[in-house]
Design goal:
The structure is a homodimer of 256-residue chains. The first copy, chain A, is an alpha+beta fold and 256 residues long. The first copy, chain A, has 2 domains: 7-165, Nucleoside Triphosphate Pyrophosphohydrolase; 174-236, Winged helix-like DNA-binding domain superfamily/Winged helix DNA-binding domain (Arc Repressor Mutant, subunit A). Chain A contains 5 helices and 10 strands. In chain A, the strands form 2 sheets. In chain A, strands 1, 2, 3, 4, 5, 6 and 7 form a 7-stranded mixed beta sheet that branches. A 3-stranded antiparallel beta sheet of chain A has the order 8-10-9. The radius of gyration of chain A is 20 Å and the shape is elongated. The A-B interface holds A 1, 8, 10-11, 53, 55-60, 62, 80, 82-87, 109, 111, 113, 159, 163, 167, 245, 247, 250-251, 253, 256 and B 1, 8, 10-11, 53, 55-60, 62, 80, 82-87, 109, 111, 113, 159, 163, 166-167, 245, 251, 253, 256. The structure holds a DNA duplex (30 and 30 nucleotides).
DNA sequence: TTTAATAAGTGTTTTTTTGACACTAATTAA
DNA sequence: TTAATTAGTGTCAAAAAAACACTTATTAAA
């Protein structure tokens, strides 16, 4: 069995963290440099932040701990979206050396509980991970080959995100505290991968009641300064989770 | 470790099977009679159909195997909806004797991957399980205290079902091959726990294209006989799954 | 054989939501 | 002063949703 009795060698958690910055949706990945015995140069590997769950640890807490340990991100609302359990999901030869370097029991069959989150990539301060590992943001259009079945997990998360955004107001964690209507629209356009009508978008967002118009305006831009808005978080205080199951009044729907 | 090396003592799967019969939404449960040393009568315990996953087995397949072994139901489309991982979820004293009777390693921390399905309770043929166990349908309003955290799992499934029904045409597995519009409406009203307007319901359902009107009508009822309908299954043949992600044309939505 | 009871079936109108569409306003840089 | 840039605004038409009440076909009972 495991050399470390507090670690459960059969259950892991992986985090798909989406971040929005510079009008681009990005994915948070762990990059590792691994010496290649053959070529004498370092191979670069990417993976989702993820690790084994402790035996006495709740899944949600495990996901937060793992994310925090690997990237420095703390207190992020993570939403579980799927568990992946292909018995061969970690056994591909390409993943073997990595697996051996991070697992005490590299042959264990491990299922992973996947979480996702949406955060403001600009506000997130990434801590350097342990040696030879670092956390990096990559645009979702440039996600490389990832370890294990992480590409599949990422694709699933992206699909779930696109569906979610259709029926719930999102963006709470995705934008700065104060943001302009254009930033918000740009976020939706990025996630949905299509253009939206400016006037219709504004009308719908304002009618939904999730936005609070602030008196403050942009400064120092060489065009008409935009008004800032913030999210009306009070609306969601009483709900168990923050962006799922939040249809405002049972009938909220964006861009059906 | 496990005495049976092919069983993973840390991962289980539980199935929340909803069935619809006699205008009532029902839950499929396993009932066990366990001798009580103190009272000399049998205690009756209920639980969701569930068991440990094999070490070389895909999660989806495991859920189907477990369901089939415990209830006789085969080939049912099961949809994963959440994993539950409270470290104390199986450790309550009330569950101890049961746990010891079904687990080789009753102290293992076990996370469970929960699946749900909707089927026609009348069509489902329940096989008697192994000795002292049987599968029974109970109306969801009469679900008793269940083993482990199964009440929580059930509540979660019900909530997920209510959300799902809002955006997708469901009922494929929930009603007989031929059904009347009233039966279908009754199903929706049961799941949503609210009344729907008859005319608006019929219009929406017919416009959606998911129903095929049959020429056959009810016989032997002491009122105007209702027309039968069947589902247009062809619409869904090409989709990976049968009632999720099926917004008909990207914008299908019932009773928003 | 008539009547009562029951659930099925049927349209219209109003209200709400959506989608398409083009110009003016405020600011800075040149 | 002018040019460039992005913010901000309203209307109309089409589609979807919601509200609403009477007639019809059948059996059971009188």
């Amino acid at each position: 069995m495991s050399l470390n009795p507090s670690i459960n060698p059969h259950v892991s958690t992986d985090c798909v963290i989406f971040g929005f910055s510079q009008d681009t949706l990005r994915l948070l990945l762990i990059r590792r440099s691994i010496p290649n015995r053959l070529t004498d140069v370092n191979d670069i590997h990417y993976a989702l932040p993820g690790d084994l769950v402790r035996d006495d640890e709740d899944l949600d807490k495990a996901a937060n701990r793992v994310l925090s340990e690997l990237t420095g991100l703390k207190g992020i609302y993570l939403e579980q979206f799927h568990s992946f359990g292909d018995p061969l999901r970690v056994t591909k030869p390409k993943d073997r050396s990595w697996l051996e370097s991070v697992r005490q029991n590299p042959d264990a069959r491990v299922i992973t509980v996947a979480y996702m989150a949406l955060i403001d990539a600009n506000k997130a301060v990434l801590q350097p991970g342990s040696f030879s590992k670092e956390a990096v943001w990559l645009p979702i259009s440039e996600v490389p080959e990832l370890a294990f079945d992480h590409n599949e997990i990422f694709e699933n998360a992206l699909k779930a995100l696109k569906e979610k955004v259709q029926i719930q107001p999102i963006g709470f964690e995705l934008l700065p505290e104060k943001f302009t209507m254009s930033q918000l629209q740009s976020l939706y356009e990025t996630i949905l991968e299509r253009d939206l009508d400016k006037r219709n978008f504004r009308r719908k967002m304002l009618n939904s009641g999730v936005l609070i118009p602030l008196s403050e305006k942009q400064l120092g831009v060489s065009n008409k300064p935009a008004r800032f808005y913030s999210f009306n978080r009070d609306l969601f205080e009483n709900s168990d989770n923050r962006y799922l199951n939040l249809r405002m009044d049972g009938s909220f729907s964006l861009f059906g």
